[in-house]
Design goal:
This protein is of the alpha+beta class. Strands 4-5-11-7-6 form a 5-stranded mixed barrel. A two-stranded antiparallel ribbon has the order 1-2. The chain has a two-stranded antiparallel sheet with strand order 8-9. It comes from Asticcacaulis currens. This is Acyl-CoA dehydrogenase C-terminal domain-containing protein. Belongs to the acyl-CoA dehydrogenase family.
Amino acid sequence: MPYKAPVRDYQFLLNDVLNIAQYSNLKGFQDASPDVVQAILEEGAKFTEEVVAPLNAPGDKEGCVLHADHSVTAPKGYKEAYLQMVEAGWPALGGDPEYGGQGLPHVVATAYSEMLTGASSAFAMYPGLTDGAVAALSVGGTDELKALYLPKLIAGEWSGTMNLTEPHCGTDLGLLRTKAVPDSDGTYKISGQKIWISAGEHDFTGNICHLVLARIEGAPAGVKGISLFLVPKFIPDANGNPGERNSLHCAGLEHKMGIHGNSTCVMIYEDAKGWLLGNAHEGLKIMFYMMNNARLGVGLQGLAIGHASHVAAVEFAKDRLQGRALTGPKSPDKPADSILVHPDVRRMLLESRALLEGGRGFLTWVALQADLAKYAEDEATREKANDFLSLLTPVVKAYLTEKGLKVTQDSMQVHGGSGFTEHFPASQYMRDIRITLIYEGTNGVQALDLVGRKLPSKGGRAVMAYFAEIDAYVADHEAGSAATFVKGLKDTKARLMDGTMWLMQNGMGNPDAAAAGSLDYLCLFGLTALAYSWAQQAAAAQAAIDAGSTDPFYADKLKVGRVFLERILPEAEAHLQKMKAGSEALFALEDDSF
Protein backbone atom coordinates (compact mmCIF):
# COMPACT_ATOMS: atom_id res chain seq x y z
CA MET A 1 0.00 0.00 0.00
CA PRO A 2 2.14 2.91 -1.23
CA TYR A 3 2.33 6.27 0.53
CA LYS A 4 0.67 9.17 -1.28
CA ALA A 5 1.79 12.70 -0.46
CA PRO A 6 -1.00 15.31 0.00
CA VAL A 7 0.10 17.40 -2.98
CA ARG A 8 -3.35 18.50 -4.13
CA ASP A 9 -4.36 19.59 -0.66
CA TYR A 10 -1.25 21.74 -0.29
CA GLN A 11 -1.81 23.29 -3.70
CA PHE A 12 -5.26 24.26 -2.51
CA LEU A 13 -4.10 25.59 0.87
CA LEU A 14 -1.16 27.60 -0.43
CA ASN A 15 -2.86 29.01 -3.51
CA ASP A 16 -6.63 29.12 -2.95
CA VAL A 17 -6.90 29.48 0.83
CA LEU A 18 -3.82 31.40 1.99
CA ASN A 19 -2.99 32.92 -1.40
CA ILE A 20 0.70 33.19 -0.53
CA ALA A 21 1.28 35.04 -3.81
CA GLN A 22 -0.08 38.14 -2.03
CA TYR A 23 3.14 38.21 0.04
CA SER A 24 5.45 38.33 -2.97
CA ASN A 25 6.88 41.62 -1.68
CA LEU A 26 8.27 39.90 1.42
CA LYS A 27 11.65 38.24 1.78
CA GLY A 28 11.46 34.56 0.89
CA PHE A 29 8.13 34.86 -0.83
CA GLN A 30 9.75 36.73 -3.69
CA ASP A 31 11.14 33.44 -4.94
CA ALA A 32 8.03 31.38 -4.12
CA SER A 33 6.10 31.90 -7.35
CA PRO A 34 3.22 29.51 -8.04
CA ASP A 35 5.37 27.64 -10.57
CA VAL A 36 8.23 27.23 -8.09
CA VAL A 37 5.90 26.07 -5.33
CA GLN A 38 4.21 23.63 -7.71
CA ALA A 39 7.60 22.17 -8.67
CA ILE A 40 8.60 21.84 -5.00
CA LEU A 41 5.38 20.00 -4.15
CA GLU A 42 5.65 17.64 -7.10
CA GLU A 43 9.35 16.90 -6.69
CA GLY A 44 8.96 16.59 -2.92
CA ALA A 45 6.20 14.07 -3.43
CA LYS A 46 8.29 12.14 -5.94
CA PHE A 47 11.27 11.94 -3.59
CA THR A 48 9.29 11.02 -0.50
CA GLU A 49 7.04 8.49 -2.26
CA GLU A 50 9.72 6.78 -4.34
CA VAL A 51 12.88 7.03 -2.22
CA VAL A 52 11.88 7.40 1.45
CA ALA A 53 8.56 5.58 1.80
CA PRO A 54 9.94 2.21 0.61
CA LEU A 55 12.39 2.33 3.56
CA ASN A 56 9.69 2.75 6.19
CA ALA A 57 8.55 -0.84 6.81
CA PRO A 58 11.98 -2.49 6.32
CA GLY A 59 13.56 0.13 8.56
CA ASP A 60 11.00 -0.59 11.26
CA LYS A 61 11.81 -4.31 11.17
CA GLU A 62 15.60 -3.88 11.03
CA GLY A 63 16.08 -0.99 13.45
CA CYS A 64 19.39 0.59 14.41
CA VAL A 65 22.51 -1.28 15.56
CA LEU A 66 25.04 -0.18 18.20
CA HIS A 67 28.55 -1.52 17.64
CA ALA A 68 31.35 -2.24 20.10
CA ASP A 69 33.14 1.00 19.18
CA HIS A 70 29.98 2.99 20.14
CA SER A 71 29.16 3.72 16.49
CA VAL A 72 25.60 3.27 15.27
CA THR A 73 24.29 2.23 11.88
CA ALA A 74 20.74 2.95 10.81
CA PRO A 75 18.61 0.55 8.75
CA LYS A 76 19.70 -0.42 5.26
CA GLY A 77 19.15 2.33 2.72
CA TYR A 78 18.77 5.18 5.23
CA LYS A 79 22.24 6.63 4.68
CA GLU A 80 21.94 6.50 0.91
CA ALA A 81 18.52 8.19 1.01
CA TYR A 82 19.83 10.85 3.40
CA LEU A 83 22.78 11.65 1.12
CA GLN A 84 20.45 11.79 -1.87
CA MET A 85 18.23 14.21 0.06
CA VAL A 86 21.19 16.45 0.89
CA GLU A 87 22.46 16.34 -2.69
CA ALA A 88 19.05 17.52 -3.91
CA GLY A 89 19.08 20.42 -1.44
CA TRP A 90 15.94 19.48 0.49
CA PRO A 91 17.26 20.25 4.01
CA ALA A 92 18.21 23.78 2.90
CA LEU A 93 14.75 24.58 1.53
CA GLY A 94 13.81 27.14 4.20
CA GLY A 95 17.34 27.89 5.44
CA ASP A 96 18.77 31.38 5.80
CA PRO A 97 20.44 32.40 2.49
CA GLU A 98 23.19 34.14 4.48
CA TYR A 99 24.37 30.67 5.47
CA GLY A 100 23.67 28.83 2.23
CA GLY A 101 19.95 28.15 2.61
CA GLN A 102 17.41 28.58 -0.17
CA GLY A 103 15.40 31.04 1.90
CA LEU A 104 11.96 29.86 0.83
CA PRO A 105 9.03 30.55 3.16
CA HIS A 106 8.55 28.32 6.18
CA VAL A 107 4.99 27.64 5.03
CA VAL A 108 6.36 26.03 1.85
CA ALA A 109 9.02 24.06 3.72
CA THR A 110 6.28 22.79 6.03
CA ALA A 111 4.51 21.12 3.11
CA TYR A 112 7.66 19.20 2.22
CA SER A 113 8.24 18.32 5.88
CA GLU A 114 4.84 16.69 6.13
CA MET A 115 5.52 14.64 3.03
CA LEU A 116 8.89 13.48 4.35
CA THR A 117 7.47 12.63 7.78
CA GLY A 118 4.48 10.82 6.35
CA ALA A 119 6.77 8.72 4.15
CA SER A 120 8.86 7.68 7.18
CA SER A 121 8.66 9.46 10.51
CA ALA A 122 11.77 7.71 11.84
CA PHE A 123 13.82 8.82 8.84
CA ALA A 124 12.47 12.38 8.92
CA MET A 125 13.62 12.82 12.52
CA TYR A 126 17.27 12.93 11.44
CA PRO A 127 16.98 16.22 9.51
CA GLY A 128 14.11 17.36 11.75
CA LEU A 129 16.24 17.59 14.89
CA THR A 130 18.82 19.54 12.91
CA ASP A 131 16.22 22.22 12.16
CA GLY A 132 15.83 22.79 15.89
CA ALA A 133 19.59 23.03 16.39
CA VAL A 134 19.73 25.66 13.65
CA ALA A 135 17.00 27.66 15.41
CA ALA A 136 18.85 27.66 18.75
CA LEU A 137 22.28 28.34 17.26
CA SER A 138 20.88 31.20 15.18
CA VAL A 139 19.71 32.90 18.38
CA GLY A 140 22.45 31.99 20.84
CA GLY A 141 25.58 31.45 18.77
CA THR A 142 28.38 33.96 18.34
CA ASP A 143 29.08 35.21 14.84
CA GLU A 144 32.05 32.85 14.67
CA LEU A 145 30.03 29.80 15.71
CA LYS A 146 27.22 30.65 13.30
CA ALA A 147 29.64 31.12 10.41
CA LEU A 148 31.28 27.77 11.15
CA TYR A 149 28.28 25.59 11.93
CA LEU A 150 25.16 26.99 10.28
CA PRO A 151 26.15 26.46 6.61
CA LYS A 152 26.89 22.78 7.24
CA LEU A 153 23.82 22.25 9.43
CA ILE A 154 21.48 23.98 6.99
CA ALA A 155 22.89 21.97 4.09
CA GLY A 156 22.46 18.75 6.05
CA GLU A 157 26.20 17.94 5.84
CA TRP A 158 26.23 18.02 9.64
CA SER A 159 23.31 17.17 11.90
CA GLY A 160 22.06 18.36 15.28
CA THR A 161 20.44 16.96 18.41
CA MET A 162 18.73 18.24 21.55
CA ASN A 163 20.00 16.93 24.93
CA LEU A 164 17.65 17.68 27.82
CA THR A 165 16.49 14.53 29.58
CA GLU A 166 18.50 12.63 32.19
CA PRO A 167 17.61 9.32 33.90
CA HIS A 168 16.20 11.12 36.94
CA CYS A 169 15.03 14.26 35.17
CA GLY A 170 12.42 14.65 32.45
CA THR A 171 10.02 17.58 32.39
CA ASP A 172 11.47 19.03 35.61
CA LEU A 173 14.72 20.28 34.10
CA GLY A 174 15.67 22.05 37.30
CA LEU A 175 16.83 18.66 38.60
CA LEU A 176 19.45 18.07 35.90
CA ARG A 177 22.98 17.16 37.04
CA THR A 178 25.09 17.43 33.89
CA LYS A 179 27.86 19.84 34.79
CA ALA A 180 29.99 22.34 32.90
CA VAL A 181 33.45 23.36 34.12
CA PRO A 182 35.09 26.45 32.57
CA ASP A 183 38.31 25.73 30.68
CA SER A 184 41.25 28.08 30.16
CA ASP A 185 40.47 28.61 26.45
CA GLY A 186 36.97 29.98 27.09
CA THR A 187 35.19 26.69 26.39
CA TYR A 188 33.69 24.33 28.97
CA LYS A 189 34.19 20.71 29.95
CA ILE A 190 30.81 18.98 29.84
CA SER A 191 30.21 15.84 31.90
CA GLY A 192 27.02 13.89 32.41
CA GLN A 193 24.51 11.42 30.99
CA LYS A 194 21.59 12.23 28.71
CA ILE A 195 18.90 9.79 27.61
CA TRP A 196 16.34 9.54 24.81
CA ILE A 197 18.53 11.53 22.42
CA SER A 198 16.99 11.11 18.97
CA ALA A 199 19.57 10.80 16.17
CA GLY A 200 22.29 10.97 18.82
CA GLU A 201 24.68 8.77 16.84
CA HIS A 202 24.69 7.66 13.19
CA ASP A 203 26.95 7.63 10.13
CA PHE A 204 25.02 9.92 7.80
CA THR A 205 26.90 13.16 8.40
CA GLY A 206 30.47 14.36 8.91
CA ASN A 207 29.64 15.72 12.34
CA ILE A 208 26.84 15.61 14.91
CA CYS A 209 26.31 18.81 16.86
CA HIS A 210 24.76 18.17 20.26
CA LEU A 211 23.00 21.01 22.06
CA VAL A 212 23.35 20.11 25.72
CA LEU A 213 21.76 21.61 28.82
CA ALA A 214 24.18 21.65 31.76
CA ARG A 215 24.86 23.49 34.98
CA ILE A 216 28.03 25.58 35.33
CA GLU A 217 29.80 24.99 38.63
CA GLY A 218 28.44 27.37 41.24
CA ALA A 219 25.28 28.14 39.25
CA PRO A 220 22.01 28.77 41.09
CA ALA A 221 19.83 25.75 41.80
CA GLY A 222 16.80 24.99 39.65
CA VAL A 223 16.09 26.18 36.14
CA LYS A 224 17.72 29.56 36.80
CA GLY A 225 21.10 27.87 36.83
CA ILE A 226 20.89 26.04 33.51
CA SER A 227 23.11 26.91 30.56
CA LEU A 228 23.15 25.65 26.96
CA PHE A 229 26.25 24.34 25.19
CA LEU A 230 27.18 23.30 21.68
CA VAL A 231 29.10 20.04 21.96
CA PRO A 232 30.17 18.57 18.60
CA LYS A 233 31.06 14.94 18.05
CA PHE A 234 34.21 16.10 16.25
CA ILE A 235 35.94 19.36 17.16
CA PRO A 236 36.35 21.40 13.96
CA ASP A 237 39.93 22.05 12.88
CA ALA A 238 41.38 25.34 11.68
CA ASN A 239 39.73 24.84 8.29
CA GLY A 240 36.31 24.15 9.78
CA ASN A 241 36.43 20.44 9.01
CA PRO A 242 35.75 17.67 11.54
CA GLY A 243 38.94 17.15 13.50
CA GLU A 244 39.69 15.59 16.88
CA ARG A 245 37.03 13.25 18.31
CA ASN A 246 35.33 14.86 21.32
CA SER A 247 35.03 12.88 24.57
CA LEU A 248 31.43 11.79 24.15
CA HIS A 249 29.82 8.57 22.97
CA CYS A 250 26.63 6.61 22.62
CA ALA A 251 26.44 4.08 25.46
CA GLY A 252 23.22 2.41 24.41
CA LEU A 253 20.16 2.43 22.19
CA GLU A 254 16.65 2.56 23.61
CA HIS A 255 14.42 -0.41 22.81
CA LYS A 256 11.25 1.38 21.80
CA MET A 257 7.65 0.71 20.90
CA GLY A 258 8.06 2.48 17.56
CA ILE A 259 10.23 4.77 15.40
CA HIS A 260 12.74 1.92 15.27
CA GLY A 261 14.59 3.44 12.34
CA ASN A 262 15.71 6.41 14.43
CA SER A 263 18.68 6.00 16.74
CA THR A 264 17.44 6.99 20.19
CA CYS A 265 20.61 7.11 22.26
CA VAL A 266 21.97 7.19 25.77
CA MET A 267 24.75 9.77 25.49
CA ILE A 268 27.74 10.00 27.83
CA TYR A 269 29.82 13.18 28.10
CA GLU A 270 33.19 12.97 29.87
CA ASP A 271 34.86 16.38 29.99
CA ALA A 272 33.67 16.95 26.44
CA LYS A 273 34.55 20.33 24.95
CA GLY A 274 31.55 22.59 24.65
CA TRP A 275 30.84 26.17 23.64
CA LEU A 276 28.40 28.29 25.63
CA LEU A 277 25.43 29.56 23.65
CA GLY A 278 24.06 32.88 24.84
CA ASN A 279 24.66 33.98 28.42
CA ALA A 280 25.47 31.76 31.35
CA HIS A 281 22.42 30.52 33.29
CA GLU A 282 20.07 31.47 30.42
CA GLY A 283 20.11 28.14 28.64
CA LEU A 284 16.41 27.46 28.80
CA LYS A 285 15.67 30.80 27.18
CA ILE A 286 17.63 29.74 24.10
CA MET A 287 16.66 26.08 24.25
CA PHE A 288 13.01 27.12 24.02
CA TYR A 289 13.66 28.28 20.45
CA MET A 290 14.69 24.72 19.70
CA MET A 291 11.91 23.20 21.82
CA ASN A 292 9.19 25.30 20.21
CA ASN A 293 10.53 24.37 16.79
CA ALA A 294 10.40 20.72 17.87
CA ARG A 295 6.89 21.04 19.29
CA LEU A 296 5.57 22.37 16.00
CA GLY A 297 7.44 19.53 14.31
CA VAL A 298 5.81 16.96 16.57
CA GLY A 299 2.36 18.34 15.76
CA LEU A 300 3.29 17.97 12.10
CA GLN A 301 4.46 14.43 12.84
CA GLY A 302 1.11 13.52 14.35
CA LEU A 303 -0.68 14.88 11.29
CA ALA A 304 1.72 13.21 8.86
CA ILE A 305 1.55 9.73 10.39
CA GLY A 306 -2.23 10.09 10.63
CA HIS A 307 -2.35 10.93 6.92
CA ALA A 308 -0.14 7.97 6.00
CA SER A 309 -2.27 5.57 8.05
CA HIS A 310 -5.43 7.00 6.48
CA VAL A 311 -4.05 6.48 2.96
CA ALA A 312 -3.39 2.84 3.82
CA ALA A 313 -6.87 2.41 5.33
CA VAL A 314 -8.62 3.88 2.27
CA GLU A 315 -6.71 1.56 -0.07
CA PHE A 316 -7.51 -1.41 2.14
CA ALA A 317 -11.20 -0.52 2.31
CA LYS A 318 -11.46 -0.26 -1.48
CA ASP A 319 -9.91 -3.68 -1.97
CA ARG A 320 -11.48 -5.57 0.94
CA LEU A 321 -14.69 -7.40 -0.03
CA GLN A 322 -16.84 -8.19 2.99
CA GLY A 323 -20.63 -8.39 3.31
CA ARG A 324 -23.27 -6.47 1.41
CA ALA A 325 -24.62 -2.95 1.71
CA LEU A 326 -27.68 -2.71 3.93
CA THR A 327 -29.62 -1.21 1.03
CA GLY A 328 -28.72 -4.02 -1.36
CA PRO A 329 -25.62 -5.19 -3.25
CA LYS A 330 -23.53 -2.45 -4.82
CA SER A 331 -21.29 -4.84 -6.72
CA PRO A 332 -23.62 -7.70 -7.74
CA ASP A 333 -20.99 -9.10 -10.10
CA LYS A 334 -18.66 -9.73 -7.14
CA PRO A 335 -19.04 -12.17 -4.24
CA ALA A 336 -19.30 -9.25 -1.79
CA ASP A 337 -19.19 -5.48 -1.68
CA SER A 338 -16.15 -3.53 -0.58
CA ILE A 339 -16.28 -2.51 3.05
CA LEU A 340 -16.72 1.09 1.90
CA VAL A 341 -20.45 0.39 1.73
CA HIS A 342 -20.70 0.03 5.50
CA PRO A 343 -21.69 3.23 7.37
CA ASP A 344 -19.30 2.66 10.27
CA VAL A 345 -16.33 2.23 7.94
CA ARG A 346 -17.32 5.39 6.09
CA ARG A 347 -17.69 7.17 9.44
CA MET A 348 -14.15 6.32 10.46
CA LEU A 349 -12.62 7.20 7.11
CA LEU A 350 -14.52 10.45 6.63
CA GLU A 351 -14.09 11.70 10.19
CA SER A 352 -10.38 10.96 9.81
CA ARG A 353 -10.20 12.88 6.55
CA ALA A 354 -12.08 15.82 8.07
CA LEU A 355 -9.62 15.96 10.98
CA LEU A 356 -6.60 15.63 8.70
CA GLU A 357 -7.67 18.29 6.21
CA GLY A 358 -8.74 20.68 8.95
CA GLY A 359 -5.54 19.99 10.86
CA ARG A 360 -3.40 20.52 7.77
CA GLY A 361 -5.10 23.86 7.17
CA PHE A 362 -4.47 24.87 10.79
CA LEU A 363 -0.82 23.82 10.65
CA THR A 364 -0.27 25.67 7.38
CA TRP A 365 -1.88 28.84 8.75
CA VAL A 366 0.40 28.71 11.80
CA ALA A 367 3.43 28.15 9.56
CA LEU A 368 2.48 31.30 7.66
CA GLN A 369 2.45 33.19 10.96
CA ALA A 370 6.09 32.15 11.47
CA ASP A 371 6.94 33.77 8.13
CA LEU A 372 4.99 36.94 8.90
CA ALA A 373 6.57 37.19 12.35
CA LYS A 374 9.95 37.24 10.64
CA TYR A 375 9.41 39.08 7.39
CA ALA A 376 6.28 41.29 7.57
CA GLU A 377 7.09 44.88 6.71
CA ASP A 378 5.31 46.54 9.64
CA GLU A 379 6.00 45.92 13.30
CA ALA A 380 2.34 45.50 14.26
CA THR A 381 1.91 42.59 11.85
CA ARG A 382 5.13 40.98 13.02
CA GLU A 383 4.07 41.35 16.65
CA LYS A 384 0.62 39.86 16.08
CA ALA A 385 2.00 36.94 14.07
CA ASN A 386 4.58 36.22 16.77
CA ASP A 387 1.83 36.32 19.40
CA PHE A 388 -0.23 33.83 17.38
CA LEU A 389 2.78 31.56 16.94
CA SER A 390 3.53 31.51 20.66
CA LEU A 391 -0.12 31.05 21.66
CA LEU A 392 -0.84 28.25 19.22
CA THR A 393 2.36 26.19 19.50
CA PRO A 394 1.03 24.02 22.37
CA VAL A 395 -2.27 23.62 20.50
CA VAL A 396 -0.50 22.45 17.35
CA LYS A 397 1.64 20.00 19.30
CA ALA A 398 -1.07 18.52 21.50
CA TYR A 399 -4.25 18.69 19.43
CA LEU A 400 -2.74 17.43 16.18
CA THR A 401 -1.09 14.51 17.95
CA GLU A 402 -4.26 13.66 19.90
CA LYS A 403 -6.25 13.61 16.68
CA GLY A 404 -3.42 11.99 14.73
CA LEU A 405 -3.61 9.11 17.18
CA LYS A 406 -7.38 8.89 16.74
CA VAL A 407 -7.03 8.81 12.97
CA THR A 408 -4.36 6.12 13.21
CA GLN A 409 -6.47 4.09 15.61
CA ASP A 410 -9.50 4.30 13.34
CA SER A 411 -7.32 3.41 10.36
CA MET A 412 -6.23 0.26 12.17
CA GLN A 413 -9.88 -0.50 12.96
CA VAL A 414 -10.76 -0.23 9.27
CA HIS A 415 -8.15 -2.92 8.60
CA GLY A 416 -9.95 -5.22 11.03
CA GLY A 417 -7.88 -8.20 12.17
CA SER A 418 -5.42 -7.55 9.35
CA GLY A 419 -4.42 -4.29 11.03
CA PHE A 420 -3.23 -6.16 14.10
CA THR A 421 -0.74 -8.15 12.04
CA GLU A 422 2.62 -7.02 10.72
CA HIS A 423 1.60 -7.88 7.14
CA PHE A 424 -0.10 -4.49 6.89
CA PRO A 425 1.27 -1.04 7.84
CA ALA A 426 -1.42 -0.12 10.38
CA SER A 427 0.41 -1.55 13.38
CA GLN A 428 3.64 0.29 12.60
CA TYR A 429 1.82 3.58 12.25
CA MET A 430 0.15 2.97 15.61
CA ARG A 431 3.49 2.22 17.25
CA ASP A 432 5.22 5.17 15.61
CA ILE A 433 2.62 7.81 16.42
CA ARG A 434 2.16 7.00 20.10
CA ILE A 435 5.34 8.81 21.17
CA THR A 436 4.12 12.09 19.69
CA LEU A 437 1.73 12.59 22.60
CA ILE A 438 4.67 12.27 24.99
CA TYR A 439 7.90 13.81 23.78
CA GLU A 440 8.78 17.52 23.65
CA GLY A 441 6.49 17.91 26.64
CA THR A 442 3.50 15.63 27.16
CA ASN A 443 0.15 16.88 25.96
CA GLY A 444 -0.84 17.50 29.56
CA VAL A 445 2.20 19.76 29.91
CA GLN A 446 1.25 21.55 26.68
CA ALA A 447 -2.21 22.19 28.13
CA LEU A 448 -0.69 23.62 31.32
CA ASP A 449 1.58 25.80 29.19
CA LEU A 450 -1.41 27.12 27.25
CA VAL A 451 -3.51 27.85 30.34
CA GLY A 452 -0.78 28.89 32.76
CA ARG A 453 1.60 30.80 30.50
CA LYS A 454 0.23 31.60 27.09
CA LEU A 455 -3.22 32.88 28.02
CA PRO A 456 -2.08 35.41 30.67
CA SER A 457 1.07 36.45 28.79
CA LYS A 458 1.26 40.19 28.22
CA GLY A 459 -2.12 40.71 29.77
CA GLY A 460 -3.83 38.23 27.47
CA ARG A 461 -2.80 40.15 24.36
CA ALA A 462 -2.33 37.09 22.15
CA VAL A 463 -5.59 35.32 22.92
CA MET A 464 -7.59 38.54 22.59
CA ALA A 465 -5.95 39.19 19.23
CA TYR A 466 -6.84 35.66 18.12
CA PHE A 467 -10.44 36.11 19.17
CA ALA A 468 -10.52 39.42 17.29
CA GLU A 469 -9.09 37.69 14.21
CA ILE A 470 -11.94 35.18 14.24
CA ASP A 471 -14.59 37.80 14.98
CA ALA A 472 -13.42 39.86 12.03
CA TYR A 473 -13.54 36.84 9.74
CA VAL A 474 -17.04 35.94 10.92
CA ALA A 475 -18.27 39.50 10.39
CA ASP A 476 -16.90 39.54 6.86
CA HIS A 477 -18.14 36.11 5.81
CA GLU A 478 -21.25 35.12 7.78
CA ALA A 479 -23.50 36.22 4.92
CA GLY A 480 -21.33 34.57 2.29
CA SER A 481 -21.54 31.30 0.38
CA ALA A 482 -19.94 29.29 3.21
CA ALA A 483 -22.30 30.65 5.87
CA THR A 484 -22.89 27.25 7.48
CA PHE A 485 -19.19 26.85 8.15
CA VAL A 486 -18.90 30.39 9.46
CA LYS A 487 -21.78 29.76 11.86
CA GLY A 488 -20.00 26.64 13.12
CA LEU A 489 -16.90 28.73 13.71
CA LYS A 490 -18.86 31.48 15.45
CA ASP A 491 -20.62 29.05 17.81
CA THR A 492 -17.43 27.18 18.69
CA LYS A 493 -15.50 30.37 19.29
CA ALA A 494 -18.29 31.46 21.67
CA ARG A 495 -17.76 28.26 23.66
CA LEU A 496 -14.02 28.90 23.71
CA MET A 497 -14.64 32.42 24.99
CA ASP A 498 -16.94 30.96 27.65
CA GLY A 499 -14.20 28.54 28.70
CA THR A 500 -11.61 31.31 28.76
CA MET A 501 -13.76 33.46 31.03
CA TRP A 502 -14.34 30.45 33.32
CA LEU A 503 -10.59 29.99 33.62
CA MET A 504 -10.10 33.67 34.42
CA GLN A 505 -12.75 33.52 37.14
CA ASN A 506 -11.79 30.16 38.66
CA GLY A 507 -8.19 29.41 37.75
CA MET A 508 -6.32 31.84 39.96
CA GLY A 509 -8.35 31.00 43.04
CA ASN A 510 -8.08 27.25 42.45
CA PRO A 511 -5.09 26.23 40.32
CA ASP A 512 -6.13 22.57 40.49
CA ALA A 513 -9.41 23.46 38.77
CA ALA A 514 -7.58 25.20 35.93
CA ALA A 515 -5.14 22.32 35.56
CA ALA A 516 -7.89 19.69 35.64
CA GLY A 517 -9.68 21.36 32.76
CA SER A 518 -6.61 22.41 30.81
CA LEU A 519 -6.53 19.58 28.28
CA ASP A 520 -10.24 19.94 27.53
CA TYR A 521 -9.66 23.67 27.11
CA LEU A 522 -6.80 22.96 24.71
CA CYS A 523 -9.02 20.58 22.72
CA LEU A 524 -11.71 23.25 22.58
CA PHE A 525 -9.07 25.65 21.30
CA GLY A 526 -8.01 23.08 18.71
CA LEU A 527 -11.58 22.59 17.53
CA THR A 528 -11.94 26.34 17.13
CA ALA A 529 -8.73 26.49 15.11
CA LEU A 530 -9.92 23.69 12.84
CA ALA A 531 -13.34 25.36 12.51
CA TYR A 532 -11.55 28.53 11.38
CA SER A 533 -9.55 26.57 8.84
CA TRP A 534 -12.61 24.73 7.54
CA ALA A 535 -14.49 28.03 7.14
CA GLN A 536 -11.59 29.35 5.06
CA GLN A 537 -11.33 26.16 3.01
CA ALA A 538 -15.08 25.99 2.39
CA ALA A 539 -15.14 29.60 1.21
CA ALA A 540 -12.24 28.97 -1.17
CA ALA A 541 -13.79 25.78 -2.53
CA GLN A 542 -17.18 27.40 -3.04
CA ALA A 543 -15.54 30.38 -4.76
CA ALA A 544 -13.85 28.03 -7.22
CA ILE A 545 -17.15 26.29 -7.93
CA ASP A 546 -18.93 29.61 -8.37
CA ALA A 547 -16.22 30.65 -10.81
CA GLY A 548 -17.09 27.67 -12.99
CA SER A 549 -14.58 25.03 -11.91
CA THR A 550 -15.72 21.46 -12.50
CA ASP A 551 -12.76 19.95 -10.64
CA PRO A 552 -14.37 17.42 -8.26
CA PHE A 553 -11.76 18.31 -5.64
CA TYR A 554 -13.75 21.40 -4.64
CA ALA A 555 -17.10 19.64 -4.31
CA ASP A 556 -15.41 16.84 -2.35
CA LYS A 557 -13.83 19.41 -0.05
CA LEU A 558 -17.28 20.74 0.88
CA LYS A 559 -18.61 17.22 1.46
CA VAL A 560 -15.75 16.38 3.82
CA GLY A 561 -16.21 19.73 5.56
CA ARG A 562 -19.82 18.83 6.22
CA VAL A 563 -18.61 15.75 8.11
CA PHE A 564 -16.49 18.03 10.27
CA LEU A 565 -19.46 20.30 11.03
CA GLU A 566 -21.92 17.53 11.83
CA ARG A 567 -19.81 14.84 13.45
CA ILE A 568 -16.74 16.49 15.00
CA LEU A 569 -17.56 20.07 15.91
CA PRO A 570 -20.30 19.03 18.41
CA GLU A 571 -17.47 17.77 20.65
CA ALA A 572 -16.87 21.41 21.60
CA GLU A 573 -19.76 21.47 24.05
CA ALA A 574 -18.58 18.27 25.75
CA HIS A 575 -15.07 19.71 26.22
CA LEU A 576 -16.54 22.89 27.69
CA GLN A 577 -18.70 21.01 30.19
CA LYS A 578 -15.88 18.70 31.27
CA MET A 579 -13.61 21.69 31.74
CA LYS A 580 -16.16 23.45 33.90
CA ALA A 581 -16.52 20.37 36.13
CA GLY A 582 -13.34 21.48 37.86
CA SER A 583 -11.08 19.27 39.94
CA GLU A 584 -13.26 18.18 42.87
CA ALA A 585 -14.05 14.72 41.49
CA LEU A 586 -10.39 14.13 40.64
CA PHE A 587 -9.27 14.81 44.22
CA ALA A 588 -12.14 13.16 46.08
CA LEU A 589 -10.32 9.83 46.19
CA GLU A 590 -7.51 9.68 48.75
CA ASP A 591 -4.02 8.86 47.47
CA ASP A 592 -3.91 5.64 49.50
CA SER A 593 -7.07 4.44 47.75
CA PHE A 594 -5.57 4.41 44.26
